[in-house]
Amino acid sequence: MKVTMGGNPVTLEGTLPSVGSRIPSFTVTAADLSGVSQSEMKGKTVFLTVPSVDTPVCDTEVRRFNQEAAALDGVTVNVISMDLPFAQARWCGAAGIGAVKLYSDYNGQSFGKAFGVLIKELGLLARAAFVADADGIIRYVQVVPEVTNEPNYDEILAAVKNL
Q1: pLDDT tens digits for 1-42?
Q2: What is the pLDDT of residues 104-150, one digit of tens each?
Q3: Which region holds residue 42: left if phi is over 0, alpha if psi is between -120 and 50, else beta?
Q4: CATH number for the domain including 132?
Q5: Which residues contact 157 (CB under 8 A, 6 or more apart)?
Q6: Is residue 4 included in any domain, yes or no?
Q7: C-beta of residue 105 within 8 angstroms of C-beta of residue 125
Q8: What residues are labeled active site?
Q9: What domain range is 151 assigned to?
């Protein structure tokens, strides 16, 4: 898959999982600096990757999914970025974010590599969405071709509602 950032091609490391595959193994860091693995994220799940919550497009995306998450019965929305957990917590407090869970992939880039969205040149995550069912099977994948663009919200939400 070709991905650009600001029109410049970037290299994605790792392997992008396909629809029908099991959620790959990964560990991310929670706000309290504890490690959280895929086995702890059971049930209907959405994983959103963003470069940094401190950027305008990421801010818009996370706020939108924070609003939508309240209406997604039985679905957990996890936002993963390379921001440090301290910065994520500060941003969530300032933005009034509470319906989605934020995790950091700064320590080892486990999620980025497992999901094929780690931007080699920048050490950031590409903008992407993965929807998994309660059995941990990926049912939808969207990688935004231009990292500075917003995702297709309607497609992601339709995939979640079809679980």
Answers
A1: 799 999 999 999 999 999 999 999 999 999 999 999 998 988
A2: 999 999 999 999 999 999 999 999 999 999 999 999 999 999 999 99
A3: beta
A4: 3.40.30.10
A5: 68
A6: no
A7: yes
A8: 58
A9: 9-161
What's the token pair of residue 92?
């969530």
Contacts of 17 (CB under 8 A, 6+ apart): 23, 24, 114, 115, 116, 130, 138, 141
Query: Domain total for the chain?
Result: 1
Phi, psi of 146 (to 5 degrees): -115, 115
Residue 54 lies in a domain: yes
Q: Is there a domain that residue 72 lies in?
A: yes
pTM: 0.95
Tokens of 161: 């509602």
59-109 pLDDT, tens digit each: 999 999 999 988 888 899 999 999 999 999 999 989 988 899 999 999 999
At which residue do the structure tokens 């029908």 appear?
A: 20
Looking at the domain assignment, is residue 3 inside a domain?
A: no
How does strand 128-132 pair with strand 138-143? antiparallel
